[in-house]
UniProtKB/TrEMBL annotation:
This is Uncharacterized protein. It comes from the Eukaryota. It comes from Avena sativa.
Length: 165
């Protein structure tokens, strides 16, 4: 097999997605979302096989289902008086673990910043960090949804070609 026919193109999706033409088959690749996802996401993809072809999408769906609830709980807890920094830290710890499970590195990093503000009992820092977490979550959600939409368009036959190369 020769790879001299390999080249990258961008097709109507955010720049972070590449579609490579390899042996006349479309094969989606994720360049780790330019800092949004880390190696954990790639490791999840390696666990996916023909017996569980949607494994990664299902794991990500769980994150996308659970994380808005956590963000809402964090926002509600910040709004209560007196502030319960222990509860805030616990909620953010859950969000950080959930994000880490799919490799959401920016979410994980911002959760660490939030936790540091909790340790310092810095309410304004927590509020600013929460806004950043919400923006990171929205961006990550959009990127992941676009990625899985692209995978569905490519279809299982082309993905199978990728797993054999």
């Amino acid at each position: 097999m020769t790879y001299s026919n390999t080249f990258s193109i961008v097709i109507g999706v955010p720049f972070i997605f590449q579609v490579m033409i390899l042996c006349d088959a479309l094969v989606p690749t994720v360049p780790i979302f330019l800092g949004y996802l880390d190696e954990q996401f790639n490791q999840l993809e390696e666990l996916q096989d023909e017996s569980s072809p949607n494994f990664v999408e299902e794991v990500v769906a769980l994150f996308l289902k659970d994380s808005p609830r956590l963000l809402t709980n964090i926002e509600q807890t910040i709004g209560k008086y007196p502030q319960d920094f222990y509860r805030l830290d616990s909620l953010v710890h859950q969000l950080k673990g959930s994000g880490s499970s799919i490799g959401a590195v920016r979410m994980k990093n911002e959760c660490s910043v939030f936790k540091a503000y909790c340790n310092d009992k810095n309410l304004e820092g927590c509020r600013r960090s929460l806004q950043k977490m919400k923006r990171e979550h929205a961006t990550l959600k959009q990127k992941l949804e676009s990625y899985f939409q692209l995978l569905r368009q490519v279809g299982p036959r082309e993905r199978a070609v990728n797993s054999r190369t």
